[in-house]
Design a protein that fits this description.
28% strand; alpha+beta
Length: 97
């Protein structure tokens, strides 16, 4: 079983929230590193909330920076869609066996 990578953040009220890293990647286009993560809470429709931030993997202390451009969000959304499609196809393949 794969070990989950987690980290803790604090909300505006100082409450500790544990987040799980879903994946990280470096964009060839922007030359930035991104971390996509969740706090495993759900939105009104029952979907797990997913967040993304810019980070520098070479730093001792990870500091998450906000993503500020629509272009960067589109890159992340495209990767999320591709991963969802891969997961769906893998699940469909298992059902056929």
């Amino acid at each position: 079983m794969e070990e989950k990578m987690t980290f803790k953040v604090y909300d505006d009220e100082g409450k500790e929230i544990e987040c799980e890293v879903l994946f990280t990647f470096e964009s060839e286009e922007t030359k930035k590193n991104y971390m996509v993560y969740t706090d495993n809470t759900k939105d009104e429709e029952g979907n797990i909330k997913v967040y993304a931030s810019i980070y520098e993997p070479d730093k001792d202390e990870t500091k998450l920076e906000p993503i500020t451009t629509d272009h960067e969000w589109k890159i992340i959304e495209k990767i999320l869609e591709e991963l969802q499609e891969e997961a769906k196809n893998a699940a469909d393949g298992e059902e056929e066996q």
